[in-house]
Amino acid sequence: MGLDHSDFEAFELEHSLFELRVDGVPIWERIRFHVHREIAEQNGTGQAHTGVGDDWRDYLRGAGLFLKNIVQKNPYLTAEHDILFWGHHRRKKRDDGYWWDIYCDPIHECSDYDYVHYEKPHMLEHRSPARTSNLRYLDLIEHGGTIQQLLGVNEPSIPKAERDRLEAAQDAIRDRFDADVDLVSMAKEALHVRRTTLPLYRWLLKRVDAELAVIVVSYCRETFIDACKEQNVPVVELQHGVIYDHHFGYSFRGPRTKETFPDYLLTFGDFWKESVEFPIPDDRVFPIGYPYLEQSIDKYDDVETKDQLLFISQGTIGEQLSKFALEVDRHSEIDHEIVYKLHPGEYDRWETEYPWLLETDIEVVDSSDRQLYKLFAESDAQIGVGSTAVYEGLAFGLQTYIYDCPGSEVLEPLVNEGSAKLVTSVEGFVSSLGREEGTFDREYYFALKATEQARNVIGHLADNGTPYELSIE
Global pTM? Predict the structure, then answer.
Protein backbone atom coordinates (compact mmCIF):
# COMPACT_ATOMS: atom_id res chain seq x y z
CA MET A 1 0.00 0.00 0.00
CA GLY A 2 1.22 3.49 -0.77
CA LEU A 3 0.54 6.61 -2.77
CA ASP A 4 1.67 6.89 -6.39
CA HIS A 5 3.18 10.38 -6.36
CA SER A 6 3.25 10.68 -10.14
CA ASP A 7 -0.46 9.89 -10.19
CA PHE A 8 -1.02 12.77 -7.77
CA GLU A 9 0.86 15.10 -10.11
CA ALA A 10 -1.24 13.95 -13.04
CA PHE A 11 -4.41 14.44 -11.01
CA GLU A 12 -3.68 18.08 -10.12
CA LEU A 13 -3.10 18.97 -13.77
CA GLU A 14 -6.17 17.08 -14.99
CA HIS A 15 -8.31 19.19 -12.65
CA SER A 16 -6.48 22.46 -13.45
CA LEU A 17 -6.01 23.06 -9.74
CA PHE A 18 -3.12 25.51 -10.13
CA GLU A 19 -5.46 27.78 -12.08
CA LEU A 20 -8.08 27.87 -9.33
CA ARG A 21 -8.30 31.24 -7.57
CA VAL A 22 -10.50 32.35 -4.72
CA ASP A 23 -10.57 36.09 -3.95
CA GLY A 24 -7.63 36.38 -6.33
CA VAL A 25 -5.58 33.90 -4.28
CA PRO A 26 -4.11 30.82 -6.03
CA ILE A 27 -5.49 28.44 -3.46
CA TRP A 28 -4.04 25.10 -4.60
CA GLU A 29 -0.42 26.12 -3.97
CA ARG A 30 -1.35 26.89 -0.35
CA ILE A 31 -2.96 23.53 0.39
CA ARG A 32 -1.14 21.22 -2.04
CA PHE A 33 1.52 19.98 0.42
CA HIS A 34 -1.10 19.26 3.10
CA VAL A 35 -3.47 17.54 0.68
CA HIS A 36 -0.71 15.23 -0.52
CA ARG A 37 0.34 14.43 3.05
CA GLU A 38 -3.26 13.69 4.06
CA ILE A 39 -3.73 11.34 1.12
CA ALA A 40 -0.41 9.62 1.90
CA GLU A 41 -1.36 9.12 5.55
CA GLN A 42 -4.69 7.58 4.54
CA ASN A 43 -2.77 5.27 2.23
CA GLY A 44 -0.57 3.87 4.97
CA THR A 45 2.09 6.47 5.73
CA GLY A 46 2.53 7.17 9.44
CA GLN A 47 2.22 10.51 11.18
CA ALA A 48 5.36 12.60 10.69
CA HIS A 49 5.10 14.77 13.80
CA THR A 50 3.06 14.91 16.95
CA GLY A 51 0.66 17.81 16.53
CA VAL A 52 -1.21 20.21 18.76
CA GLY A 53 -4.88 19.31 18.83
CA ASP A 54 -8.11 21.23 19.28
CA ASP A 55 -8.28 20.50 22.98
CA TRP A 56 -9.50 23.45 25.08
CA ARG A 57 -6.31 23.20 27.14
CA ASP A 58 -4.27 23.81 23.99
CA TYR A 59 -6.32 26.91 23.26
CA LEU A 60 -5.72 28.14 26.81
CA ARG A 61 -1.98 27.57 26.47
CA GLY A 62 -2.03 29.42 23.17
CA ALA A 63 -3.87 32.32 24.75
CA GLY A 64 -1.28 32.34 27.53
CA LEU A 65 1.53 32.58 24.97
CA PHE A 66 -0.33 35.41 23.26
CA LEU A 67 -0.63 37.42 26.48
CA LYS A 68 2.94 36.69 27.56
CA ASN A 69 4.28 37.82 24.18
CA ILE A 70 2.87 41.29 24.79
CA VAL A 71 5.58 41.90 27.39
CA GLN A 72 8.20 39.25 26.57
CA LYS A 73 10.01 39.25 23.21
CA ASN A 74 7.19 41.24 21.61
CA PRO A 75 7.70 41.02 17.82
CA TYR A 76 6.81 44.66 17.30
CA LEU A 77 8.96 46.17 20.05
CA THR A 78 12.16 46.14 18.04
CA ALA A 79 14.31 48.64 16.20
CA GLU A 80 14.78 48.63 12.44
CA HIS A 81 17.14 45.92 11.16
CA ASP A 82 18.74 45.10 7.82
CA ILE A 83 17.80 41.41 7.86
CA LEU A 84 14.75 39.64 9.29
CA PHE A 85 15.22 35.95 10.06
CA TRP A 86 12.30 33.59 10.63
CA GLY A 87 14.08 30.55 12.02
CA HIS A 88 13.10 26.97 12.73
CA HIS A 89 10.79 26.47 15.71
CA ARG A 90 12.23 23.08 16.68
CA ARG A 91 15.50 23.81 18.46
CA LYS A 92 18.23 21.36 19.45
CA LYS A 93 20.06 21.35 22.76
CA ARG A 94 23.83 21.26 22.37
CA ASP A 95 26.65 20.41 24.74
CA ASP A 96 26.94 24.04 25.87
CA GLY A 97 23.47 23.81 27.46
CA TYR A 98 21.87 26.20 24.97
CA TRP A 99 19.01 25.45 22.59
CA TRP A 100 20.19 26.20 19.06
CA ASP A 101 18.40 27.01 15.87
CA ILE A 102 20.80 24.79 13.96
CA TYR A 103 20.04 26.38 10.59
CA CYS A 104 20.49 30.02 11.56
CA ASP A 105 22.64 30.26 14.70
CA PRO A 106 25.87 28.95 13.10
CA ILE A 107 25.50 31.73 10.49
CA HIS A 108 24.67 34.37 13.11
CA GLU A 109 27.72 33.36 15.13
CA CYS A 110 30.18 34.20 12.36
CA SER A 111 28.47 37.26 10.89
CA ASP A 112 28.33 40.92 11.76
CA TYR A 113 25.18 41.87 9.87
CA ASP A 114 22.34 43.69 11.60
CA TYR A 115 19.48 41.26 12.14
CA VAL A 116 16.44 40.34 14.22
CA HIS A 117 15.42 36.70 14.59
CA TYR A 118 11.78 35.58 14.88
CA GLU A 119 10.43 32.25 16.06
CA LYS A 120 7.00 30.64 16.30
CA PRO A 121 6.23 28.27 19.20
CA HIS A 122 6.85 24.55 18.89
CA MET A 123 4.27 22.38 20.61
CA LEU A 124 3.06 25.54 22.40
CA GLU A 125 6.41 26.35 23.98
CA HIS A 126 9.73 28.07 23.35
CA ARG A 127 12.97 26.39 24.37
CA SER A 128 15.23 28.27 26.78
CA PRO A 129 17.99 29.27 27.16
CA ALA A 130 18.15 29.95 23.43
CA ARG A 131 21.49 30.53 21.76
CA THR A 132 20.01 33.10 19.38
CA SER A 133 20.64 36.79 19.98
CA ASN A 134 18.08 39.46 19.07
CA LEU A 135 15.31 36.87 19.45
CA ARG A 136 11.62 37.74 19.21
CA TYR A 137 8.56 35.51 19.26
CA LEU A 138 5.66 35.42 16.80
CA ASP A 139 2.98 34.37 19.30
CA LEU A 140 1.08 37.64 18.94
CA ILE A 141 0.70 36.96 15.23
CA GLU A 142 0.28 33.17 15.32
CA HIS A 143 -2.25 33.10 18.16
CA GLY A 144 -3.70 36.50 17.33
CA GLY A 145 -4.73 35.01 14.01
CA THR A 146 -6.10 31.90 15.73
CA ILE A 147 -8.20 34.00 18.11
CA GLN A 148 -9.69 35.90 15.19
CA GLN A 149 -10.43 32.65 13.39
CA LEU A 150 -12.18 31.18 16.43
CA LEU A 151 -14.29 34.33 16.72
CA GLY A 152 -15.16 34.23 13.03
CA VAL A 153 -13.44 37.54 12.27
CA ASN A 154 -12.93 38.05 8.50
CA GLU A 155 -14.31 34.60 7.80
CA PRO A 156 -14.18 33.97 4.04
CA SER A 157 -16.81 32.41 1.85
CA ILE A 158 -16.02 30.41 -1.26
CA PRO A 159 -18.14 31.30 -4.31
CA LYS A 160 -20.25 28.54 -5.78
CA ALA A 161 -18.21 28.08 -8.95
CA GLU A 162 -14.96 27.59 -7.01
CA ARG A 163 -16.70 25.45 -4.39
CA ASP A 164 -18.06 23.19 -7.13
CA ARG A 165 -14.57 22.72 -8.57
CA LEU A 166 -13.12 21.88 -5.16
CA GLU A 167 -15.92 19.44 -4.41
CA ALA A 168 -15.44 17.76 -7.79
CA ALA A 169 -11.71 17.42 -7.03
CA GLN A 170 -12.31 15.94 -3.60
CA ASP A 171 -14.76 13.43 -5.09
CA ALA A 172 -12.06 12.51 -7.60
CA ILE A 173 -9.54 12.07 -4.76
CA ARG A 174 -11.94 9.68 -3.04
CA ASP A 175 -12.34 7.61 -6.20
CA ARG A 176 -8.73 7.72 -7.31
CA PHE A 177 -6.78 7.55 -4.06
CA ASP A 178 -9.33 6.05 -1.67
CA ALA A 179 -8.95 9.04 0.67
CA ASP A 180 -11.41 11.51 2.17
CA VAL A 181 -9.93 15.01 2.03
CA ASP A 182 -12.15 18.04 2.61
CA LEU A 183 -10.68 20.45 0.09
CA VAL A 184 -13.38 23.04 0.71
CA SER A 185 -12.59 23.26 4.43
CA MET A 186 -8.84 23.27 3.78
CA ALA A 187 -9.18 26.08 1.25
CA LYS A 188 -11.44 28.07 3.54
CA GLU A 189 -9.03 27.67 6.45
CA ALA A 190 -6.06 28.77 4.32
CA LEU A 191 -7.96 31.86 3.20
CA HIS A 192 -9.02 32.62 6.77
CA VAL A 193 -5.41 32.38 7.99
CA ARG A 194 -4.37 34.75 5.23
CA ARG A 195 -7.07 37.30 6.02
CA THR A 196 -6.35 37.35 9.73
CA THR A 197 -2.55 37.33 9.66
CA LEU A 198 -1.62 39.28 6.52
CA PRO A 199 -2.25 42.69 8.18
CA LEU A 200 -0.14 41.59 11.15
CA TYR A 201 2.78 40.58 8.91
CA ARG A 202 2.49 43.86 6.99
CA TRP A 203 2.77 45.75 10.27
CA LEU A 204 5.77 43.65 11.30
CA LEU A 205 7.62 44.31 8.05
CA LYS A 206 6.97 48.03 8.26
CA ARG A 207 8.27 48.05 11.82
CA VAL A 208 11.50 46.16 11.03
CA ASP A 209 12.00 47.80 7.61
CA ALA A 210 14.35 45.00 6.56
CA GLU A 211 16.19 44.79 3.25
CA LEU A 212 15.96 40.99 3.24
CA ALA A 213 13.93 38.21 4.88
CA VAL A 214 15.55 34.81 5.53
CA ILE A 215 13.25 31.91 6.38
CA VAL A 216 13.58 28.22 7.23
CA VAL A 217 10.68 26.24 5.69
CA SER A 218 8.72 28.17 3.07
CA TYR A 219 5.63 25.97 2.78
CA CYS A 220 3.15 27.08 5.47
CA ARG A 221 4.74 30.58 5.32
CA GLU A 222 2.81 31.72 2.23
CA THR A 223 1.08 34.64 3.94
CA PHE A 224 4.36 36.02 5.27
CA ILE A 225 5.85 35.71 1.76
CA ASP A 226 2.77 37.49 0.43
CA ALA A 227 3.47 40.41 2.76
CA CYS A 228 7.15 40.47 1.76
CA LYS A 229 6.29 40.57 -1.94
CA GLU A 230 3.82 43.42 -1.35
CA GLN A 231 6.56 45.45 0.31
CA ASN A 232 9.35 44.44 -2.10
CA VAL A 233 11.36 42.56 0.52
CA PRO A 234 13.28 39.69 -1.15
CA VAL A 235 12.85 36.32 0.59
CA VAL A 236 15.64 33.74 0.97
CA GLU A 237 15.02 30.19 2.18
CA LEU A 238 17.63 28.08 3.93
CA GLN A 239 17.30 24.35 3.16
CA HIS A 240 16.33 22.49 6.31
CA GLY A 241 15.76 18.91 5.17
CA VAL A 242 15.64 16.43 2.34
CA ILE A 243 14.43 17.80 -1.00
CA TYR A 244 13.38 15.31 -3.68
CA ASP A 245 11.29 15.21 -6.81
CA HIS A 246 8.06 14.33 -4.99
CA HIS A 247 8.40 16.77 -2.10
CA PHE A 248 5.41 18.94 -2.92
CA GLY A 249 6.62 21.89 -0.91
CA TYR A 250 9.42 22.34 -3.49
CA SER A 251 8.80 20.30 -6.63
CA PHE A 252 6.82 22.14 -9.32
CA ARG A 253 7.43 20.35 -12.58
CA GLY A 254 6.41 21.50 -16.04
CA PRO A 255 3.53 24.00 -16.04
CA ARG A 256 3.21 23.98 -12.25
CA THR A 257 4.33 27.04 -10.34
CA LYS A 258 4.01 28.74 -6.97
CA GLU A 259 3.58 32.48 -6.65
CA THR A 260 4.33 32.51 -2.93
CA PHE A 261 7.72 30.81 -3.22
CA PRO A 262 10.91 32.47 -1.92
CA ASP A 263 12.93 34.59 -4.35
CA TYR A 264 16.10 32.61 -3.52
CA LEU A 265 16.86 29.14 -2.17
CA LEU A 266 20.15 28.22 -0.47
CA THR A 267 20.67 24.46 -0.73
CA PHE A 268 23.12 22.16 1.01
CA GLY A 269 24.89 21.34 -2.28
CA ASP A 270 24.63 20.80 -6.03
CA PHE A 271 22.77 17.50 -5.62
CA TRP A 272 19.74 19.20 -4.09
CA LYS A 273 19.73 21.93 -6.72
CA GLU A 274 19.73 19.35 -9.51
CA SER A 275 17.17 17.00 -7.96
CA VAL A 276 14.07 19.18 -8.21
CA GLU A 277 12.42 21.57 -10.65
CA PHE A 278 11.84 24.64 -8.49
CA PRO A 279 9.40 27.43 -9.39
CA ILE A 280 12.28 29.95 -9.56
CA PRO A 281 15.17 30.29 -12.06
CA ASP A 282 18.29 28.17 -11.56
CA ASP A 283 20.44 31.26 -10.98
CA ARG A 284 18.44 31.96 -7.82
CA VAL A 285 19.27 28.57 -6.27
CA PHE A 286 22.67 28.64 -4.53
CA PRO A 287 24.41 25.45 -3.29
CA ILE A 288 26.13 26.97 -0.27
CA GLY A 289 26.47 23.98 2.09
CA TYR A 290 25.20 23.13 5.55
CA PRO A 291 27.05 25.15 8.22
CA TYR A 292 25.86 23.18 11.25
CA LEU A 293 26.88 19.85 9.72
CA GLU A 294 30.26 21.12 8.62
CA GLN A 295 31.04 22.55 12.06
CA SER A 296 29.85 19.36 13.79
CA ILE A 297 32.06 17.08 11.67
CA ASP A 298 35.04 19.12 12.82
CA LYS A 299 33.81 19.17 16.43
CA TYR A 300 33.50 15.37 16.74
CA ASP A 301 36.53 14.49 14.66
CA ASP A 302 38.37 12.95 17.63
CA VAL A 303 35.46 10.75 18.85
CA GLU A 304 36.37 7.06 18.74
CA THR A 305 34.25 4.89 16.45
CA LYS A 306 32.91 1.56 17.73
CA ASP A 307 30.79 -1.34 16.47
CA GLN A 308 27.54 0.53 16.76
CA LEU A 309 24.58 0.34 14.40
CA LEU A 310 22.42 3.45 14.33
CA PHE A 311 18.77 3.26 13.25
CA ILE A 312 17.40 6.61 11.98
CA SER A 313 13.66 6.72 12.66
CA GLN A 314 10.82 8.94 11.41
CA GLY A 315 7.17 9.02 12.34
CA THR A 316 6.10 8.15 8.81
CA ILE A 317 7.93 4.80 8.84
CA GLY A 318 8.64 4.27 12.53
CA GLU A 319 6.46 1.22 12.94
CA GLN A 320 8.10 -0.68 10.08
CA LEU A 321 11.66 0.36 10.91
CA SER A 322 11.36 -0.33 14.64
CA LYS A 323 10.06 -3.84 13.95
CA PHE A 324 12.99 -4.42 11.61
CA ALA A 325 15.35 -3.20 14.36
CA LEU A 326 13.77 -5.77 16.68
CA GLU A 327 14.46 -8.57 14.16
CA VAL A 328 18.06 -7.42 13.71
CA ASP A 329 18.59 -7.32 17.47
CA ARG A 330 17.36 -10.92 17.76
CA HIS A 331 19.63 -12.22 15.00
CA SER A 332 22.29 -14.53 16.37
CA GLU A 333 25.11 -13.15 14.21
CA ILE A 334 24.71 -9.49 15.00
CA ASP A 335 27.56 -8.24 17.17
CA HIS A 336 26.92 -4.50 16.98
CA GLU A 337 25.41 -2.41 19.71
CA ILE A 338 22.08 -1.14 18.38
CA VAL A 339 20.92 2.42 18.96
CA TYR A 340 17.47 3.49 17.77
CA LYS A 341 17.43 7.28 17.25
CA LEU A 342 13.90 8.65 17.25
CA HIS A 343 12.90 11.74 15.32
CA PRO A 344 11.94 14.58 17.71
CA GLY A 345 8.38 14.26 16.41
CA GLU A 346 8.26 10.74 17.92
CA TYR A 347 9.71 11.46 21.35
CA ASP A 348 6.43 11.71 23.21
CA ARG A 349 4.60 8.77 21.59
CA TRP A 350 7.06 5.99 20.80
CA GLU A 351 6.30 3.92 23.91
CA THR A 352 2.66 3.73 22.81
CA GLU A 353 3.28 3.26 19.10
CA TYR A 354 6.39 1.02 19.25
CA PRO A 355 5.93 -0.84 22.57
CA TRP A 356 8.03 -3.78 21.32
CA LEU A 357 11.15 -1.63 21.71
CA LEU A 358 10.56 -1.57 25.46
CA GLU A 359 11.14 -5.32 25.59
CA THR A 360 14.66 -5.26 24.10
CA ASP A 361 18.17 -4.16 24.98
CA ILE A 362 18.10 -1.66 22.12
CA GLU A 363 19.07 1.81 23.31
CA VAL A 364 16.26 4.17 22.34
CA VAL A 365 17.28 7.82 22.07
CA ASP A 366 14.17 9.82 22.87
CA SER A 367 15.50 13.23 23.83
CA SER A 368 17.82 15.91 22.51
CA ASP A 369 20.31 15.21 25.30
CA ARG A 370 22.07 12.64 23.09
CA GLN A 371 23.54 14.58 20.18
CA LEU A 372 22.75 13.05 16.79
CA TYR A 373 26.09 14.04 15.34
CA LYS A 374 27.98 12.54 18.26
CA LEU A 375 26.05 9.31 17.62
CA PHE A 376 27.21 9.48 14.00
CA ALA A 377 30.80 9.94 15.12
CA GLU A 378 30.54 6.93 17.49
CA SER A 379 28.86 4.60 15.00
CA ASP A 380 30.27 2.72 12.04
CA ALA A 381 26.96 1.88 10.31
CA GLN A 382 23.47 3.33 9.94
CA ILE A 383 20.13 2.31 8.49
CA GLY A 384 17.18 4.54 7.62
CA VAL A 385 14.39 5.03 5.12
CA GLY A 386 13.93 8.61 3.91
CA SER A 387 15.55 10.95 6.40
CA THR A 388 17.93 13.82 5.73
CA ALA A 389 19.97 12.40 8.61
CA VAL A 390 21.01 9.48 6.41
CA TYR A 391 22.83 11.91 4.11
CA GLU A 392 24.42 13.52 7.17
CA GLY A 393 25.55 10.13 8.46
CA LEU A 394 27.22 9.48 5.12
CA ALA A 395 29.08 12.77 5.51
CA PHE A 396 30.44 11.30 8.77
CA GLY A 397 31.64 8.25 6.84
CA LEU A 398 29.08 5.67 8.04
CA GLN A 399 28.39 2.48 6.12
CA THR A 400 24.82 3.07 5.04
CA TYR A 401 21.74 0.90 4.43
CA ILE A 402 18.26 1.84 3.26
CA TYR A 403 15.40 -0.29 4.55
CA ASP A 404 13.01 -1.11 1.73
CA CYS A 405 9.54 0.13 2.71
CA PRO A 406 7.20 2.91 1.51
CA GLY A 407 9.23 6.12 1.62
CA SER A 408 12.60 4.57 0.75
CA GLU A 409 12.31 5.92 -2.79
CA VAL A 410 13.42 9.27 -1.33
CA LEU A 411 16.94 7.85 -0.89
CA GLU A 412 17.00 5.94 -4.17
CA PRO A 413 19.78 8.18 -5.60
CA LEU A 414 22.13 6.95 -2.87
CA VAL A 415 21.40 3.33 -3.78
CA ASN A 416 21.77 3.97 -7.51
CA GLU A 417 25.19 5.58 -7.11
CA GLY A 418 26.42 2.90 -4.71
CA SER A 419 26.73 5.07 -1.59
CA ALA A 420 24.11 2.95 0.20
CA LYS A 421 22.70 -0.57 -0.03
CA LEU A 422 18.99 -1.38 -0.14
CA VAL A 423 18.02 -4.14 2.28
CA THR A 424 14.82 -6.16 2.31
CA SER A 425 15.54 -8.87 4.88
CA VAL A 426 17.41 -9.34 8.13
CA GLU A 427 19.57 -12.11 6.67
CA GLY A 428 20.59 -9.97 3.71
CA PHE A 429 21.36 -7.03 5.94
CA VAL A 430 23.41 -8.94 8.51
CA SER A 431 25.42 -10.70 5.80
CA SER A 432 26.37 -7.38 4.18
CA LEU A 433 27.10 -5.48 7.41
CA GLY A 434 30.78 -4.56 7.50
CA ARG A 435 31.45 -5.08 3.81
CA GLU A 436 33.07 -2.25 1.90
CA GLU A 437 30.56 -0.14 -0.04
CA GLY A 438 30.86 2.68 -2.56
CA THR A 439 32.23 6.10 -1.73
CA PHE A 440 30.13 9.14 -0.90
CA ASP A 441 30.89 12.41 -2.71
CA ARG A 442 30.41 14.65 0.30
CA GLU A 443 31.14 17.89 -1.55
CA TYR A 444 28.41 17.16 -4.14
CA TYR A 445 25.80 16.86 -1.40
CA PHE A 446 27.25 19.34 1.11
CA ALA A 447 29.28 22.16 -0.40
CA LEU A 448 32.50 23.27 1.28
CA LYS A 449 33.02 26.44 3.34
CA ALA A 450 29.32 26.45 4.16
CA THR A 451 29.29 29.11 6.87
CA GLU A 452 31.39 31.49 4.81
CA GLN A 453 29.25 30.98 1.74
CA ALA A 454 25.98 31.46 3.66
CA ARG A 455 27.26 34.65 5.24
CA ASN A 456 28.48 36.03 1.90
CA VAL A 457 25.29 35.27 -0.04
CA ILE A 458 22.96 36.62 2.64
CA GLY A 459 25.10 39.73 3.14
CA HIS A 460 25.28 40.40 -0.59
CA LEU A 461 21.54 40.04 -1.12
CA ALA A 462 20.79 42.30 1.84
CA ASP A 463 23.21 44.97 0.61
CA ASN A 464 22.50 44.79 -3.10
CA GLY A 465 19.31 42.84 -3.77
CA THR A 466 20.94 41.39 -6.89
CA PRO A 467 21.99 37.83 -7.80
CA TYR A 468 25.26 36.58 -6.41
CA GLU A 469 28.01 34.53 -8.02
CA LEU A 470 29.30 31.75 -5.78
CA SER A 471 33.06 31.29 -5.80
CA ILE A 472 34.73 28.64 -3.65
CA GLU A 473 38.50 28.72 -3.67
Answer: 0.93
